[in-house]
Amino acid sequence: MVINTNLSAETTAQYLAKSSSMLSSSLAQLSSGSKVNSPSDDSAGLAVSMSLVAQQGENTAASNNIADALSFNQTQDGYIQQVTSALDRMSELAVQAQDVTKSSADIQLYQNEFNTLATYVQSVGTQSFNGVSLFTGQSFTITTDSSGGTFSMGGVNLASSTTFTTLTSANVLTNATGALTDVTNAIQQLAVDSGTIGTNEETLNDYSNQLSTLNNNLSAANSTIMDVNVATASTQYAQANILVQAGTAMLAQANALPNLALKLITG
User: Fold this and answer.
1) 222: how many CB neighbours lie within 10 A of its CB?
2) Is 0.85 topped by the overall pTM?
3) What class does CATH assign to 46-226?
4) By C-alpha distance, which of 67, 74, 119, 91 is closest to 176?
5) Rg of the chain's alpha carbons, rounded to an integer?
6) What is the structure's pLDDT at 88?
7) Mean pLDDT of 144-152
8) Mean of pLDDT values over 10-17
9) Interatomic CA distance for residues 247 and 256, integer angstroms
10) Residue 42: pLDDT band by 50, 70, 90 thresholds?
11) How many CB atoms are closer than 10 A to CB 261?
Protein backbone atom coordinates (compact mmCIF):
# COMPACT_ATOMS: atom_id res chain seq x y z
CA MET A 1 0.00 0.00 0.00
CA VAL A 2 1.41 3.38 -1.07
CA ILE A 3 1.11 6.52 1.09
CA ASN A 4 3.12 9.20 -0.78
CA THR A 5 1.34 8.70 -4.10
CA ASN A 6 -2.41 7.98 -3.96
CA LEU A 7 -2.89 6.65 -7.47
CA SER A 8 -6.53 5.78 -6.87
CA ALA A 9 -7.33 9.35 -5.81
CA GLU A 10 -5.43 10.86 -8.74
CA THR A 11 -7.18 8.63 -11.25
CA THR A 12 -10.56 9.31 -9.69
CA ALA A 13 -9.85 13.06 -9.66
CA GLN A 14 -8.98 12.88 -13.36
CA TYR A 15 -12.29 11.23 -14.22
CA LEU A 16 -14.14 13.65 -11.94
CA ALA A 17 -12.59 16.62 -13.74
CA LYS A 18 -13.66 15.15 -17.08
CA SER A 19 -17.20 14.59 -15.81
CA SER A 20 -17.30 18.11 -14.36
CA SER A 21 -16.23 19.51 -17.74
CA MET A 22 -19.01 17.54 -19.44
CA LEU A 23 -21.50 18.85 -16.89
CA SER A 24 -20.36 22.46 -17.40
CA SER A 25 -20.59 22.06 -21.18
CA SER A 26 -24.11 20.63 -20.96
CA LEU A 27 -25.21 23.44 -18.64
CA ALA A 28 -23.75 26.06 -21.00
CA GLN A 29 -25.52 24.50 -23.99
CA LEU A 30 -28.87 24.27 -22.24
CA SER A 31 -28.69 27.79 -20.82
CA SER A 32 -27.49 29.44 -24.06
CA GLY A 33 -29.34 27.28 -26.57
CA SER A 34 -26.12 26.96 -28.55
CA LYS A 35 -23.85 23.95 -29.07
CA VAL A 36 -20.83 26.18 -29.61
CA ASN A 37 -20.14 28.54 -26.72
CA SER A 38 -16.40 28.81 -27.26
CA PRO A 39 -14.05 28.07 -30.16
CA SER A 40 -12.86 24.92 -28.39
CA ASP A 41 -16.35 23.41 -28.62
CA ASP A 42 -16.20 23.24 -32.44
CA SER A 43 -13.62 25.50 -34.04
CA ALA A 44 -14.35 24.37 -37.60
CA GLY A 45 -18.11 24.64 -37.10
CA LEU A 46 -17.73 28.11 -35.60
CA ALA A 47 -15.74 29.26 -38.66
CA VAL A 48 -18.42 27.94 -41.01
CA SER A 49 -21.13 29.54 -38.88
CA MET A 50 -19.41 32.93 -39.00
CA SER A 51 -19.25 32.68 -42.79
CA LEU A 52 -22.93 31.76 -42.99
CA VAL A 53 -23.95 34.62 -40.69
CA ALA A 54 -21.86 37.09 -42.72
CA GLN A 55 -23.51 35.95 -45.95
CA GLN A 56 -26.94 36.32 -44.34
CA GLY A 57 -26.11 39.89 -43.38
CA GLU A 58 -24.92 40.68 -46.89
CA ASN A 59 -28.07 39.15 -48.38
CA THR A 60 -30.19 41.19 -45.99
CA ALA A 61 -28.41 44.37 -47.11
CA ALA A 62 -29.01 43.43 -50.76
CA SER A 63 -32.65 42.72 -49.95
CA ASN A 64 -32.95 46.21 -48.44
CA ASN A 65 -31.47 47.68 -51.63
CA ILE A 66 -34.06 45.80 -53.66
CA ALA A 67 -36.87 46.96 -51.37
CA ASP A 68 -35.80 50.59 -51.85
CA ALA A 69 -35.64 50.09 -55.63
CA LEU A 70 -39.15 48.61 -55.53
CA SER A 71 -40.38 51.64 -53.60
CA PHE A 72 -38.79 53.83 -56.27
CA ASN A 73 -40.64 51.93 -59.02
CA GLN A 74 -43.90 51.95 -57.12
CA THR A 75 -43.63 55.71 -56.75
CA GLN A 76 -43.04 55.99 -60.49
CA ASP A 77 -46.06 53.78 -61.10
CA GLY A 78 -48.25 55.99 -58.92
CA TYR A 79 -47.29 59.08 -60.90
CA ILE A 80 -47.71 57.25 -64.21
CA GLN A 81 -51.27 56.31 -63.31
CA GLN A 82 -52.09 59.97 -62.66
CA VAL A 83 -50.44 61.02 -65.92
CA THR A 84 -52.48 58.36 -67.72
CA SER A 85 -55.69 59.85 -66.35
CA ALA A 86 -54.55 63.32 -67.41
CA LEU A 87 -53.71 62.17 -70.95
CA ASP A 88 -57.01 60.35 -71.29
CA ARG A 89 -58.83 63.53 -70.38
CA MET A 90 -56.68 65.57 -72.77
CA SER A 91 -57.55 63.21 -75.63
CA GLU A 92 -61.24 63.69 -74.83
CA LEU A 93 -60.80 67.46 -74.89
CA ALA A 94 -58.99 67.29 -78.25
CA VAL A 95 -61.88 65.32 -79.73
CA GLN A 96 -64.56 67.55 -78.18
CA ALA A 97 -62.78 70.60 -79.57
CA GLN A 98 -63.50 69.25 -83.06
CA ASP A 99 -67.26 69.56 -82.50
CA VAL A 100 -68.46 72.06 -85.11
CA THR A 101 -71.41 73.04 -82.89
CA LYS A 102 -69.06 74.45 -80.27
CA SER A 103 -68.24 78.14 -80.27
CA SER A 104 -64.76 79.52 -79.98
CA ALA A 105 -65.53 80.46 -76.38
CA ASP A 106 -66.46 76.84 -75.63
CA ILE A 107 -63.32 75.51 -77.26
CA GLN A 108 -61.24 78.06 -75.33
CA LEU A 109 -62.54 76.45 -72.16
CA TYR A 110 -61.33 73.11 -73.48
CA GLN A 111 -57.97 74.68 -74.24
CA ASN A 112 -57.70 76.10 -70.72
CA GLU A 113 -58.25 72.68 -69.19
CA PHE A 114 -55.91 71.09 -71.76
CA ASN A 115 -53.15 73.53 -70.82
CA THR A 116 -53.64 72.86 -67.12
CA LEU A 117 -53.33 69.11 -67.64
CA ALA A 118 -50.30 69.50 -69.93
CA THR A 119 -48.62 71.60 -67.24
CA TYR A 120 -49.35 68.88 -64.70
CA VAL A 121 -47.80 66.22 -66.97
CA GLN A 122 -44.70 68.38 -67.37
CA SER A 123 -44.45 68.92 -63.60
CA VAL A 124 -44.48 65.15 -62.97
CA GLY A 125 -41.28 64.90 -65.00
CA THR A 126 -39.49 66.95 -62.32
CA GLN A 127 -40.48 64.77 -59.37
CA SER A 128 -37.91 62.88 -57.29
CA PHE A 129 -37.65 60.07 -54.74
CA ASN A 130 -35.35 60.76 -51.79
CA GLY A 131 -33.52 63.30 -53.92
CA VAL A 132 -33.20 60.97 -56.92
CA SER A 133 -35.05 62.08 -60.07
CA LEU A 134 -37.84 59.72 -61.06
CA PHE A 135 -38.34 60.54 -64.71
CA THR A 136 -35.06 61.58 -66.32
CA GLY A 137 -34.67 58.26 -68.14
CA GLN A 138 -31.67 57.22 -66.04
CA SER A 139 -31.04 53.49 -65.58
CA PHE A 140 -29.88 52.22 -62.19
CA THR A 141 -27.69 49.24 -61.27
CA ILE A 142 -29.19 47.38 -58.32
CA THR A 143 -27.08 44.96 -56.23
CA THR A 144 -29.08 41.75 -55.96
CA ASP A 145 -26.95 39.35 -53.89
CA SER A 146 -23.92 38.95 -51.64
CA SER A 147 -21.75 37.96 -54.59
CA GLY A 148 -22.10 41.35 -56.26
CA GLY A 149 -24.73 40.32 -58.80
CA THR A 150 -26.62 43.24 -60.29
CA PHE A 151 -29.78 44.09 -62.18
CA SER A 152 -30.03 47.07 -64.56
CA MET A 153 -33.30 48.84 -63.76
CA GLY A 154 -34.64 50.61 -66.83
CA GLY A 155 -35.47 54.31 -66.61
CA VAL A 156 -38.49 56.36 -67.67
CA ASN A 157 -38.14 59.76 -69.32
CA LEU A 158 -40.93 62.31 -68.87
CA ALA A 159 -38.70 65.27 -68.18
CA SER A 160 -37.00 65.80 -71.55
CA SER A 161 -38.81 63.48 -73.94
CA THR A 162 -40.30 65.56 -76.77
CA THR A 163 -43.29 63.20 -76.76
CA PHE A 164 -44.38 64.81 -73.51
CA THR A 165 -42.82 68.28 -73.67
CA THR A 166 -44.69 69.12 -76.91
CA LEU A 167 -48.00 68.78 -75.10
CA THR A 168 -47.57 72.21 -73.52
CA SER A 169 -47.52 73.82 -76.97
CA ALA A 170 -50.44 71.81 -78.40
CA ASN A 171 -53.56 73.87 -79.03
CA VAL A 172 -57.05 72.39 -79.41
CA LEU A 173 -58.41 75.80 -80.37
CA THR A 174 -56.26 76.22 -83.48
CA ASN A 175 -55.26 72.64 -84.26
CA ALA A 176 -57.35 70.09 -82.42
CA THR A 177 -56.33 67.28 -84.78
CA GLY A 178 -52.65 67.93 -84.22
CA ALA A 179 -53.20 68.16 -80.47
CA LEU A 180 -54.98 64.80 -80.53
CA THR A 181 -52.04 63.27 -82.40
CA ASP A 182 -49.61 64.61 -79.79
CA VAL A 183 -51.70 63.19 -76.95
CA THR A 184 -52.05 59.83 -78.70
CA ASN A 185 -48.29 59.63 -79.14
CA ALA A 186 -47.83 60.46 -75.46
CA ILE A 187 -50.31 57.75 -74.42
CA GLN A 188 -48.48 55.17 -76.54
CA GLN A 189 -45.12 56.15 -75.07
CA LEU A 190 -46.59 56.04 -71.57
CA ALA A 191 -47.77 52.49 -72.22
CA VAL A 192 -44.18 51.53 -73.06
CA ASP A 193 -42.95 53.29 -69.92
CA SER A 194 -45.54 51.47 -67.81
CA GLY A 195 -44.26 48.20 -69.24
CA THR A 196 -40.71 49.14 -68.25
CA ILE A 197 -41.79 49.88 -64.69
CA GLY A 198 -43.79 46.66 -64.52
CA THR A 199 -40.81 44.63 -65.74
CA ASN A 200 -38.59 46.31 -63.15
CA GLU A 201 -41.01 45.50 -60.35
CA GLU A 202 -41.49 41.90 -61.45
CA THR A 203 -37.75 41.24 -61.72
CA LEU A 204 -36.96 42.94 -58.41
CA ASN A 205 -39.66 40.88 -56.68
CA ASP A 206 -38.08 37.72 -58.12
CA TYR A 207 -34.68 38.71 -56.75
CA SER A 208 -36.21 39.57 -53.38
CA ASN A 209 -37.93 36.18 -53.14
CA GLN A 210 -34.69 34.48 -54.16
CA LEU A 211 -32.78 36.21 -51.37
CA SER A 212 -35.47 35.33 -48.86
CA THR A 213 -35.26 31.65 -49.79
CA LEU A 214 -31.46 31.72 -49.68
CA ASN A 215 -31.41 33.33 -46.24
CA ASN A 216 -33.87 30.74 -44.92
CA ASN A 217 -31.59 27.97 -46.13
CA LEU A 218 -28.51 29.67 -44.69
CA SER A 219 -30.30 30.03 -41.37
CA ALA A 220 -31.20 26.34 -41.41
CA ALA A 221 -27.58 25.39 -42.16
CA ASN A 222 -26.32 27.61 -39.36
CA SER A 223 -28.89 26.16 -36.99
CA THR A 224 -27.56 22.66 -37.67
CA ILE A 225 -24.10 23.81 -36.58
CA MET A 226 -24.93 26.13 -33.71
CA ASP A 227 -28.31 25.31 -32.17
CA VAL A 228 -28.39 22.80 -29.34
CA ASN A 229 -30.54 19.68 -29.49
CA VAL A 230 -32.30 20.03 -26.14
CA ALA A 231 -33.17 16.34 -25.88
CA THR A 232 -29.57 15.26 -26.49
CA ALA A 233 -28.12 17.95 -24.24
CA SER A 234 -30.54 17.05 -21.44
CA THR A 235 -29.48 13.41 -21.66
CA GLN A 236 -25.83 14.39 -21.59
CA TYR A 237 -26.47 16.66 -18.62
CA ALA A 238 -28.16 13.86 -16.66
CA GLN A 239 -25.30 11.49 -17.48
CA ALA A 240 -22.61 14.00 -16.50
CA ASN A 241 -24.47 14.91 -13.31
CA ILE A 242 -24.57 11.27 -12.21
CA LEU A 243 -20.88 10.80 -13.06
CA VAL A 244 -19.93 13.93 -11.08
CA GLN A 245 -21.85 12.76 -8.03
CA ALA A 246 -20.43 9.28 -8.29
CA GLY A 247 -16.92 10.59 -8.92
CA THR A 248 -17.15 12.88 -5.90
CA ALA A 249 -18.14 9.95 -3.70
CA MET A 250 -15.37 7.72 -5.10
CA LEU A 251 -12.78 10.46 -4.64
CA ALA A 252 -13.75 10.67 -1.00
CA GLN A 253 -13.24 6.91 -0.71
CA ALA A 254 -9.89 7.06 -2.53
CA ASN A 255 -8.67 9.83 -0.25
CA ALA A 256 -9.55 7.65 2.74
CA LEU A 257 -7.24 4.80 1.63
CA PRO A 258 -4.09 6.24 3.31
CA ASN A 259 -5.93 5.97 6.63
CA LEU A 260 -5.83 2.20 6.21
CA ALA A 261 -2.05 2.35 6.02
CA LEU A 262 -2.00 4.42 9.20
CA LYS A 263 -4.00 1.72 10.97
CA LEU A 264 -1.42 -0.87 9.88
CA ILE A 265 1.35 1.26 11.37
CA THR A 266 -0.42 2.07 14.60
CA GLY A 267 -1.74 -1.43 15.01
Assistant:
1) 19
2) no
3) mainly alpha
4) 91
5) 39
6) 96
7) 89
8) 72
9) 14
10) confident
11) 12
